[in-house]
Specification:
The chain contains two helices and five strands; from the N terminus they run ββββαβα. By secondary structure, it is of the alpha+beta class. It has one domain (3-91): Aminopeptidase (3-Layer(aba) Sandwich), CATH 3.40.630.
Length: 94
């Protein structure tokens, strides 16, 4: 499962696409130069049970680490992942 990223202006998304169809997506908004806010995560039934949502969050964490960003997870799913995976605490904007 390959996760891609797109960004336009202050909006962006990490997504999973197969055969030209977007099956999973996590959207975010840039808040200044040092923070992104995760707004929403959605995964199609085709990817249920494959940890696709967690992989989208992991991609955002990796991106944040590489770009010295903090993440504010307003999306309930993303917040639950941050609550469970303490290793992501270094990029969490509290």
């Amino acid at each position: 499962m390959q996760i891609q990223r797109e960004e336009s202006g202050s909006k962006g998304a990490f997504y999973i696409e197969e055969n030209g169809k977007r099956l999973g997506e996590m959207t975010y908004t840039k808040a200044g130069d040092t923070r992104i806010i995760i707004n929403h995560t959605e995964v199609s039934n085709e990817l249920r049970g494959k940890s696709a949502g967690k992989q989208l969050v992991a991609a955002a964490v990796d991106h944040a680490r590489k770009n010295n960003l903090k993440i504010l997870p307003l999306c309930p799913f993303a917040k639950s992942v941050f609550d469970k995976v303490t290793e992501y605490g270094d990029v969490l904007d509290k």
